[in-house]
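REVIEWER CHECKLIST
Item 1: Sequence provided? yes
Item 2: Single chain? yes
Item 3: Sequence as submitted:
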Amino acid sequence: MIATRARTAPLEELSFWIGRAYYNYKLLLERTLRGLGLDRHVSPGMGHILFTLFEEDGCILRDIAAKTRLSSPTITVMLRRMEKAGLVEMRRDEQDGRAVRVRLSALGHSIETRCWRALARLNAVLGRGLASREIELAKRTLARMVENMRKDEDSGG
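Item 4: Structure as written out by the authors:
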């Protein structure tokens, strides 16, 4: 007799929980941006780049990709949207004409305090009722999942 593995209900699989978390997070983020008046300038996905530039303005694309762990095509698309929204300015690097240097515009600088408030709100909601060790475990687990997806993408899987 062949032993069969007990099946988990499809809607209880990890992939569905990640999907639920993503959609609920996006709604929370949109509400938070709207509440802080940032929705006119910032859309979901821009935070990675904004916070990278808040830490070190004038980065080149390669550095942004390394710090955010996002793919270069994803960053390029997002930067074009951010440039169109007036948040960043992109110029060829004077020393290395192949590199593109990204700087916050006056508008980008002006929203920094509200972006930090948005981040604090998001983290407060997401971490509510969780011990610090649970938050650290969640971050490590999600980082491994992101790495797994990046490796799968790189392998053409």
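Item 5: Key structural point noted by reviewer: The mean pLDDT is 93.
Item 6: Recommendation: ____
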